[in-house]
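Forum: Protein Structure Q&A
Topic: Joint prediction for protein chains with partners

I've read a bunch of threads here and the consensus seems to be that you should model interacting components together rather than docking separate models afterwards. I'd like to see that in practice. Below is the full input, 1383 residues plus whatever partners are listed. Could one of the regulars post the assembled result?
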Amino acid sequence: MAALCESFTLCGLGPSGGVGLGGGLLALEPGPDPDHVLLTDRGRTATLFKVSDQKPLGCWSVKHGQIITCPVVCNFETHEYIAVHDDKVLRIWKNKDINLDKVFKATLSADVYRIHSLPNGGPVVLFKGGGVRTLDVLLEAPQQEIENIITDEVIKWSEAFMEGQQPVLIFTTEKDGEFFVYVRKLKMNGLHKYKLEQQELSKPLNFTAHIKNQTITLLCLYSNDSVYKFLIPLQQNTEEEEQILSKSLLLNLSVSGSVLKGTSFVVLDKDHIAVLGSLAASGEESKECLTIWNTKFQTLQTSKELPLGTSGQLWCYEEKFFFTHGKVLTVIMYKCETSSLAAAVGKLKDSQAPEVSSFVNWNTLGDEELVVSFQSQQSVALKFESKMTDASTTAFEDELRQLMSKAQMPDFQATIGCVITALINRCKTNPKYYPRNFLLQIVQTRDLSYSLCPDLMAVALEKKDVHLLQICLQRFPDIPEEITYACLKVFLSISEAYLQRIDVNLESVICYIDIEFNNKEVKTEIVENGFNAELEQDIWDTNTTKETHLTADGEFCPVGPQKAALLNAVLHSAYSETFLLPHLKNLPAQQAVLFLRYLYYLYVKCSEKINTTLPGICSPTINQVMDWMCLLLDAHFTVMVMLPEAKELLSNLHKFVRAQVRFYSELNKIEGSLRELQRLHHQKDSQTYSIEVLELI
Amino acid sequence: MGEFEVHRVRFFGLVPAGVRCLACEPRGGRLALARTDGAVEVYNFAANYFQERVIPGNEARSVEALCWAAGDRLFGAGLGGDITEYDLARLCAARSVDGCGGPIWSMAANSTGTQLAIGCEDGSVKLFQVVPGGIQFERNLDRRKGRILCLSWHPSDTHIAAGSIDILRVFDVCSGQTVQRIMVNYHVQKVKRECIVWSIAFLSSGTVVTSDSFGRVQFWDWERGTLLESHTVSTSAVLSLAVSEKEDSIIVGTSTGATYQFQLLPVKMGSLEKRWVRTKPFQHHTHDVRAVAHSSTALISGGLDAQLVIRPLMEKMQKKGYDAALRKFTFPHRRLVSCARKARLLLFQFSQHLELWRLGSTNKTGKDGEVLPLCRMPEHLVQLKSKGPEHIYCSCVSPCGSWVAYSTASRFHLYRVQYEGDSISVKKVPKVPKLLPPAYQLQFSADSGSLFVASARGSVHVLQLLELGGCKLLHTFRPPSGSPEAVYLLAASADGHWVAAVSGDWAIHIYNLKCFKHHCAVPAYSCAVTALAIHPVTNNLVIAYSDQQLFEFSIPEKQYTAWSRMVQNCGLHRVWLERDSPITHITFNPKNPSHILLHDIYMFCVLDKSLPLPDNSALLMNQSTLKQLPENARQRQLHAFKICKKFQPLLFADLLDENCLVMVERPIMDIKTQLPLPIQQKKFGT
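Posted by a regular:
Agreed with the consensus. Here's the joint model:
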């Protein structure tokens, strides 16, 4: 899924840089280093910013009366800045230069449209007449004549790429409502002209392009709220006259009745594009917003309203969007993950842990030589296996450790898988053999997955090695629901007394659990999100024993910290409801009640904080708690209703949830009013002069 | 009561200059403030922090340091290299002496106020003797390389500590020798940057406190040259520092806009050992806090964002009152806008130019809160630039719009503006009478036939304006007993009979214009006058004081009116008295003689004398409540104060005609966009 993250302001803009037609900036270009951008306004000034610090690092202006006509770009090889002012005057300077009047100057013989700077190819200058030169060539003779390729056409947009070692420039032009595309390969001196297929009643508004496998993909935003795709092959030697490019619809910018009037867009990855525009539903005022669309599924993934208006320009560098919003330049980060079926249908594992691939890359094993090496590894594993029969356990483990120290081998995962399988096989044949420390150590390297050693968890379940199970649940991304359920059942059935003697990773619970859960005399008043549990008790429920039950259910943890940590590991694992539910039905009623009680406790704990998150590392999220609670109730509905000791719990749970629902619905009501207030406030602030009516009574 | 058509003006592009330095009058109740444009202001603590004196700036006279010496004499020094004494009665620079050491970065007076020490660009520290009528060079102390950025006298006047780049030095005043030099960057590892000592204070215990560009506040033992304590308060520079008179509290200001208080506290309860502890952080500013001061009851800070913030120390407060509130001043306590009612023009006063605008108009009407469509946009007619380095003291446009006058420190200018269709011609009136400049306030008569000029020594000049574009001096009024203070506020009656003048000693004199005689003086009241105006029908003078009291004085009867006595008997509403910004303008509605229109920065009020005064239990700002009540229920709730807080910050409000108002606002956000970017701090992990 794609998501927009928090935004921040990069800088305020002057009066001309604001919103509206003709406002905005001239351009925003990447700076000399990562995290740097070069901002050129529509006047005389260019500024270099360090984005993460929100700080300007340098600012250059041309003299009064001059105007920068071509956005400042950075030559990535020399770290020089290049700008053109008054169409023809080229300036080149370095970071340390302050006064642009004193830096290198060259007056060219033709008007420049834009300069494109390529990371490995140097800057390329595109003239308004369609001529193209690399900067090096141009600087050798600045006054050289520049050919005029396009006569009456006007350049609308241009872009440059590196194809192999040669720069490729693409630009589009317009003449009398017809659009043309030119592709220029600099080294080959080849020029191709194409004509865009005409479209009734709509015309191109904005272009973007990318290159892959010798083919340029040109995307174009049309005024009929659709994005079309054109493919332009680069391997073309026939100099034909004006081929016509046929288009294919990529995306229709409409979602459930509302239509996005796009003004500009960028491509994020092969499946996602971001569009800035105004979203208009029928009968409603249109709102400017930034949206991310999935082109594969044709869906709107996320959007953000921009109530202060934009200039219609959008840039995207290093996973950050840049656009003007009101009187400021806003930066907003985004996340764009490849859409996966798992994310769509199941509960994907929380990706808090750093991204380490825990799957075997089966492609690496496809290669001939790797298969050979894999076989050799297998023989290593076999060798171990044979050794196991005679060598002492410690000597054997030492040898394995040596193997593990060579962890950077490409097929290391496969090797470890073989070793584990061999170990597990031995455990199965010899019930007394169980190298628990070593297994823990291997699992903690994070390079394993369930599919690589399917029997490991089964053996651990048999041995009731809860610590290993906990680590597996935390580390493995692909545990089948059946095993997850088996773990849950083991965890719930083990006695607290036994668990207290066992070493379990407690980091997910220590931050929120009350250790003295037996001390029931301490009665503290709990207020969850402004809701007092006692006040919410209804009159019809006048059971006198209820109060002690209530405290036991809501306030104190019904399980010990070790058990809680193990259950958290279960909550954290990935699952799909359809597959888990049948297994969950087999959970004994007493254990189901205990688990529900623990979930209720977690839910109350989560709700105490305004951000509804529990402190600590890997602690369960409120969504996980809610999902499991629903699952458990679904699986044991009749049992829960019949069971006398569950009745109290259910009724408390019901009351608590009802109070939460009420509380949130009240918040929702307030939200509407607050938003309205904010809207009024914005409206009021925009003008410099108005005549208003004021009544005093 | 009625509906008004409000011209809401937000195009007055005033950007107040940043605060450069502050100085509390020793044992006195006044605070001197200098801005980055060279303007010097004096705030009176006793008069509810009223900005009672303003000396406009001068491009050639920057002020880097201010200090009070010899009682109530105020001295300033700056990068021009001169030490200037200010005449607070005549509101101008009285005399200047060249420091002969290049630009002056710092200045400090000794504890008795008899000597001034200055720190210069060339690295010298020079002593000057304060003598009657000026200052006299005394001698140089031991000179070393490196500009002296800050200075502080030891309370016994025997030593001076001076901060420079990377170093602080202590001088013996008697011998003039350097007796200690301490490298302040010694403790920083791998120093590549220079460490600038921005501010310094010498405590009586012998401890020297410095604040520097590394964000540290350090305490040094000057005799041993050792570091006693070091507190890093900020990642950016600590620019300013001030110590309380009892030396138990310090305030520092940083370039991130934060200020911090340090207090000398016992290590534990009842212990004699005390240490400096950073106690309170405040974030009132967005930009550099270049100046701080420590009064006996408050922490005072001034920033480049032009704000002056007075933060009272609650532990020093006996009761909740006017002094116990945090106050922020961004805008001057006087008018910078004048209005030509008949011609519907506005004149905006900037530091070195004037702008004349014509208001737009509409032909529609509407209900409360509606924005009406404009049929004519406002128009910028003329920009008048003042030549020379001096800033403008005051300006005014006549009610008919055809005269514009302004004054700088040395010159008085009068222009005749003529409108022919769409074209405008501005002609300077060639021979203005030779008056002793500057003028502190200008006021045209209601018929635009004469101009009143507030001048020094309590005098008011009356100029007659001639149809053909000339003018002549008719008369000069002076208070019968004389006064050394300049007149700073004027009010003329609509019938051309009376003019009232307020001078710096807060005395209000009323003069008769028909027979050019002193008519009477309003009984003295011990607070500063912030605004006054004469009622067009009754010729009652309405006076607003800085303690928020309102008086009405009948000029013909030479006594307070019955209504005014009633107000004093009943007392004004508590909420009204607790407001923290002064009334800066009063006007009337000729069609509704019982109405008085007044405003401050945060509210506009129509005071209806025919209605009962609210008592403390009533809601003062009741307009929104009233609007929800049915017509018949309103009557019981009505009271005299009809307050509207919709327009903020309100720099000027006036009545154009019977139901048409003009309100000039200056949104703080608009000023902020004009300021340089503040130092950005990471918030919430962004």
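The longest strand of chain A covers residues 2-12.
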